[in-house]
C-alpha cells in the first residue's frame, strides 16, 4: 500500500545496505515513505541488483558517461524528477554534489555518515576514530550541503570504542546502528516537512 506515502529516491555507489534498511522500513504499512527508485553512479553496484530484487526501479548513471560533473548531475536530477521524488537519501553515494544540484532539494536531501559529526568528516572514519583515541564513535544523519559532511545533523547514534577493536569490528557495530538510525531520521524529517 503506497497511498499517502512520500516518494524517496536513494543514491548509492556500492552494496546498498542502508538502502535495504530504508526499503525494509518503507515496507511497513505505517511508515510514511516509499522508495520510488534507486540510482547509482556505478553501473554494476550490488545495491542496484538488491533494489531490483525488491521490485524497486533502478538507474545507473556512471560519471564516465558524461562530459562534465554538471552534465552528470543534470542527468541525475532528471531521473529524480521522472520518479516524482520528494526526498533524496544518500546511502554510500561516493560523490560530492554541487550546490547547484542540491539547491532544488534543499531541506529534503540527507546523508548518513559513519562518524559523530563534526568529528571525522570524509573517509576512513573507523580507523581515524581509533587512532584519535576516541572513547565513542557512531553515525550521523545530516542535511546535505555543498560542503563535505558539513550539513546540520538530524540524528546520531553512538557506540563505544572497545579495547582491541579493529576498523572492521568497530565499523560493523556502527553499520548496525546506521540501519536503525537512517529510517528513524527519515521518518522524523518527513513528519516536519509539508
UniProtKB/TrEMBL annotation:
Presence of keyword Transferase: yes
Site (Raises pKa of active site His): 149
Domain of life where this protein originates: Bacteria
Residue ranges of every copy of the Formyl transferase N-terminal domain listed in the record: 7-186
Purpose: Catalyzes the transfer of a formyl group from 10-formyltetrahydrofolate to 5-phospho-ribosyl-glycinamide (GAR), producing 5-phospho-ribosyl-N-formylglycinamide (FGAR) and tetrahydrofolate.
NCBIfam families the record matches: PurN
Protein name, per record: Phosphoribosylglycinamide formyltransferase
Originating species: Roseitalea porphyridii
Amino acid at each position: 500500500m503506497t497511498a499517502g506515502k512520500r516518494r524517496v529516491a536513494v543514491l548509492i555507489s556500492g552494496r546498498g545496505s542502508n538502502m535495504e534498511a530504508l526499503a525494509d522500513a518503507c515496507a511497513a504499512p505505517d511508515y510514511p515513505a516509499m522508495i520510488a527508485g534507486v540510482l547509482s553512479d556505478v553501473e554494476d553496484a550490488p545495491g542496484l541488483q538488491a533494489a531490483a530484487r525488491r521490485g524497486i526501479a533502478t538507474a545507473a548513471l556512471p560519471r564516465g558517461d558524461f562530459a562534465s560533473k554538471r552534465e552528470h548531475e543534470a542527468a541525475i536530477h532528471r531521473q529524480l524528477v521522472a520518479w516524482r521524488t520528494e526526498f533524496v537519501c544518500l546511502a554510500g553515494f561516493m560523490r560530492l554534489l554541487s550546490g547547484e544540484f542540491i539547491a532544488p532539494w534543499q531541506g529534503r536531501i540527507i546523508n548518513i555518515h559513519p562518524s559523530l559529526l563534526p568529528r571525522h568528516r570524509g573517509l576512513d572514519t573507523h580507523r581515524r576514530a581509533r587512532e584519535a583515541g576516541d572513547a565513542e564513535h557512531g553515525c550521523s544523519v545530516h542535511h546535505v550541503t555543498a560542503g563535505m559532511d558539513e550539513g546540520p545533523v538530524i540524528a546520531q547514534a553512538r557506540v563505544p570504542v572497545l579495547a582491541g577493536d579493529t576498523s572492521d569490528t568497530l565499523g560493523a557495530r556502527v553499520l548496525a546502528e546506521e540501519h536503525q538510525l537512517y529510517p528513524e531520521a527519515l521518518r522524523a524529517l518527513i513528519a516536519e516537512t509539508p
